[in-house]
Amino acid sequence: MLLASRNFAYHLVANGACLIAETFATVEAEGWEGVPEGACLFASNHQSMLDPPLIGGLIPREIAFVARKSLFDNPVFGGVIRACRAIPLDRGEADISAIRRTLAVLAEGRALLIFPEGTRSMDGQLQSTKSGAGLLAIKSGVPVVPVRIRGIRDVLPRGSRWLRGGARIRIQFGTAIPASSLDPGKDHDDRFGEASRRIMAAIAALPDISDPGL
After folding, report:
1. Of 1.10.10.2840, 3.40.1130.10, 3.90.1150.10, 3.40.50.20, which CATH number belongs to 26-204?
2. For the whole prediction, is pTM greater than 0.85?
3. Is pLDDT at 181 greater than 90 in this prediction?
4. Cα–Cα distance for residue pair 120/127, rounded to 1 Å
């Protein structure tokens, strides 16, 4: 699937990631046809640096995403993600500026990709979640689409600079969840954290795609 985008850099990066993944692996995706129009959050587990552009290339609409602030310091990679209009995020503290920018993106009716775990998994297993995903869901009130990606770590794992072949990448898009279903209420002691855990539980519940060879 080749994504059409008015942002040339986004078009190049997203479609380039799809072509790279399909060169080194088989790529199977289910549920992307039902992604909603209008503002929404795509919430995915995180295994590889290829996750954002690959997911972006599979979704039939342009999406915004956040990236670790230090990545913008790299003259090459930083230039690429700037051209893709990525939002810099300082993970070491509550980044109010990034939160405002992401909420503004959603207020414009656009889609945003987030990773509730906050960083890539070392072993491919799901990690504990940060509260930011729940905060964005509750503050924006937009639906959340859970996404589960499997196998991409076998192509480009965390800490590796080299692509590996022979993998089978599976990406499952779930049904959009209303933000109200994720909100435990204003009186909850850890309102945003609990909302994030509910998002992560929805990601964990997504089934694997059956191996067509079986």
Report:
1. 3.40.1130.10
2. yes
3. yes
4. 9
